[in-house]
Amino acid sequence: MGQSGEWLKPAYLGLDPRGYDALEEMVIRKSSTENGRFAIKVFPRHLVWSKGKCGKDFLFEIRRNNDLDFILLERRDRLRQAISFYRASVSRSWTSRHKEADTPVQYSFAGISQAFFQIEQSYAFWRAYLNLSQLPRRQFVYEDLQQDPQPYVEAVAELLDVPVPAAVPVSPYTIQRDDLTEDWVARFRREAAERGAIEAIEEAPVPRTLDNLARFAMKRPLSRRRF
After folding, report:
1. Among 78, 172, 187, 203, which is least packed by CB within 10 angstroms?
2. Residue 51 gets which letter from DSSP?
3. Please, which residues have CB within 8 angstroms of residue 153's CB and are 6 or more apart in sequence?
4. CA-based angle 100:98:16, to the nearest 5?
5. How many angstroms separate the CA atoms of 117 and 112, rounded?
6. pTM (2 d.p.)
């Protein structure tokens, strides 16, 4: 069923492709199983990176010579997702396997608020991208799959035209959400009710992007947009 991973991420590839053809070859090779099926986990930033690197829309190009289908996975509880995202971005502990890098994280209303907006923008990106490209998609919700991942596994197997596994493997990962998460949920909701949800958005440092470098050179106002 492929080797799903963030293969449009330079750190995962391990090499810096010189052009689009090399990028596509590397991604398909690393994401494939012996039966020729491949699977890629994609975030909007991956498409932005590959477009900037090679000047092409990776997903559009790869569809020229391959059958490609999309599954959208989203989380219903956006606030807890934002808290998890903020904590991981600070501690660098993105999964339960990264606990050796775990460091204490201080609560930040601004950080959680910015993470929430970034997550919503990410979901909006995929809706717009797939609608503009007129591409079909299947959609699943994280919280539903926690109880029963079988529908997701069956959907992937159907799209890849392979037999459904006899049993769903047990994930090696554990949920990192804990009592601190719940404390922060209650605290954030209180603060958002008192001060508004976007008051802290502009507190973030100005992103170091190519766009802002160009704006600085032309003495134009810098953009704080992070999404």
Report:
1. 172
2. H
3. 164, 165, 168
4. 115
5. 9
6. 0.79
